[in-house]
Amino acid sequence: MRNNSFLKPTRPTTSGAIPPFPRRQMLVLAICRICEPIAFMGIFPYIYFMIEDFNITEDKSKISFYAGMVTSAFTFAEFSTGLMWGRLSDKIGRKPVLLTGLIGTALSVLIFGFAPNLTVALLARAVGGLLNGNMGVLQTTVAELVTAKEHQPRAYTIMPVVWCLGSIIGPMIGGALARPCISYPSLFAPGTIWDRYPYLLPNLFSAFVVLIGVINGILFLEETHSEKKQKPDRGLELGNWILSCLPIFGKCAESRDEKAKFSEMETQPLIDHEEQLPGYRTNEATPENSPRIRSASVPSISWETLDLESSREESSLGISKIFTRPVVLNIVSFGILAFHTMTFDQLFPVFLSTAPPENKVPTSLPFKFVDGFGLDSKTIGIILSAQGAYQLLINMFLIPPVLKRFGARRLFRFLVVIYFALYLVTPYLVLLPEQYRMMGVGMVLVWKCTFASMAYPSNAILTADSAPSHLALGTINGVAASTASLCRAFGPTISGILYAVGLQSGYSGLAWWCSALVAISGAIVGFQIEEPQTHADTTTVPANNAELIRPDTAPAAGQAAPLQSGA
C-alpha cells in the first residue's frame, strides 16, 4: 500500500547542526514592523482631545464611546480583509502583501491627520485596516524564517520587542506633537495649517516612518514562501547592489551569496545514485555468480524535489484538515486574548484622561465609585512611552529564557488563568491617596506589560507548531488575524459604551470588570490547548517506494536499515 503521508521535515545541515539564526532578515522585518505601532499607538495620547475638538457631544462621559469607535474602525476593517490577505500571501508571496500593508498604513495616517470631523477620522482608520493584513502575514514570515525550535523563543519575542519600541516612540511623538499651536506657540503660530489641523504633525511623522519601512522592505526583505522565494526580485537585487557599493555594509551583501551556496548544498542528492543503501548490502564476500540480495536502485532525491512533492500534497489539504481542533483552539484563545488586551490599551488612556466629576457621585464601596485622574496628553504620552520601555527590556532579557524554561503551553496556561485579576484591580487606582496614585499606575502597567509580553509569543509558537502544514500557515494566521481584529474591534467599542454607562451610573469599574469576565472565558479555552506533536524527522517519499535516509540517521555499515513496507 502506498504511503501518502507527508510530514514537513527540518532540512539537514552539516552533521545535523542547527541552522543559523536569520539575523539580517529578522532585522529587516523588524524595521518594517516598527512602523505600525508608531502609527497605531501614536493616536492614544490625543484621541480624547481630538474627539472633544470635533464637538460631537457636550457630555464628556460619552467621549470614551467615540474614542472606542475610532480605534475599532481600523480593527473592524482589518477583520473584513484579514483572511483575504492571508490567503493571498499563500498565492503571491509574503513580501508584496507586507509592502501593501505598509502603504495602506501611510495613506491612513495622512487622511487621519487632515480629518476635520469624526466621519473622516473613521474613514481614515478604516482605509488602514482594509489595506493592512500584516499581523497574520508577519507571524507566517517569522515561522518560515525560523524553523529550528531552539530559535523559537528568541525569534517570537523579537516582534514584540519591536512593537514595544514603536509603543515608546508613537505615544511620545503623538503626545508631544499634537496641538502644536497650544504646546509650542512660539514655533507654530495660530491661524496656520497646524492650527486648522492640530493633529496633522504627529501623523506626518508617522507617514515618514512608514515610508522608510516601505523602502527598507523593497530593497532588503527576502521572500520566505517556499514556492515564491526562487523568483527574481529586482528590489532585492538593487538593495544588494547598494550595500556592495558601501564598504561598511559590503559583507551584508555577500551574506546572500553564502545563503545561495548553502541552498545549493541542500539541493544536492542525499544519497548518490551510484551508492547503495546500507540496508541492501551484504558484508559477506560472495562470488559474483552466488545468489545474493540484489541492490535496490535508489533515485537521486533532493530536498528541492521533496519540497515540490510536499507542496503538491499539502496544497490539496481541505479546510477540515487545516483547521484541526488544536488550530481552532489556539485561534479562539488568540481572539479572546486580543479582545481584553486591546480593551486595556484603548481604555487606559481614556481612564487617565477622565477628569474628576464636577458633581460628587455618592460612593458605596466596594463597587460604586466615580473619580478620575484628569491628566493631559503630554503626561499620558510619557506614561505610555515608559510602558513601552519596560516592555522592551523584558522582551529582550526576561521573556526568551522564561519561554525556554517553562515552554509555551505551560506558560500560556498560567497567564490566562490569572489574567482576570488585573482587570479587577485597575479601576480602584482612582481611590488611592493622591501621593500613591502614580505608583499604582506604574504597578498596573508593569503587570499588564509582563503578562501581554509573555502571552502573545506563547500563543504564536503554539499556533505555528499546531499547523498541519507550513504551506497552510498563511491561511491559518490570516484567520487568526481576522479573528483577533474582530475581537479588537468589539473590545474598544463595547468597553467605551460600558465605561460611559459606568460613569453615569456611578460604577466606573464596570468596563474593567466585564473585561475580567472575558479573561476568565479565555482561561477556560486555554486549558483545553494540548501540547503540539513534534513532527517526525523522516519523510516518506512515494517515488519508487524508496525510503529517504537522512545522513544523520543512516545506520552504520554492516547494520540493516529498516525496510519500509509498501507495494
Give an account of the 3D structure.
This protein has 567 residues and is an all-alpha fold. The chain has one domain: MFS general substrate transporter like domains (Growth Hormone, Chain: A), CATH 1.20.1250.20. It has 22 helices and no strands. α3 runs antiparallel to α21 (473-505), α18 runs antiparallel to α22 (510-526) and α21 packs antiparallel against α22. The longest helix has 33 residues, at 473-505. It is globular, with a radius of gyration of 28 Å. The termini are close together.
CATH-defined architecture: Up-down Bundle
Number of helices: 22
Q: What is the N-to-C succession of helices and strands?
A: HHHHHHHHHHHHHHHHHHHHHH
Number of domains: 1
- Summing up helix and strand content along with how strands pair, one would put the structural category as mainly alpha
Could you say what the CATH topology is called? Growth Hormone, Chain: A
Q: What are the defining features of this structure?
A:
567 residues; mainly alpha; Growth Hormone, Chain: A; 63% helix; globular; disordered N terminus; disordered C terminus
Task: Describe the secondary structure blueprint for this structure.
Layout: H1 23-41, H2 47-53, H3 63-92, H4 94-113, H5 118-130, H6 134-145, H7 152-177, H8 180-183, H9 193-196, H10 200-220, H11 234-245, H12 250-266, H13 303-315, H14 319-322, H15 325-353, H16 377-397, H17 399-406, H18 408-418, H19 420-425, H20 437-466, H21 473-505, H22 510-526
Helix pairs in contact: 1-4, 1-7, 1-10, 2-3, 3-4, 3-5, 3-6, 3-21, 4-5, 4-6, 4-10, 6-21, 7-10, 7-16, 7-20, 11-12, 15-20, 15-21, 15-22, 16-20, 17-18, 18-20, 18-22, 21-22
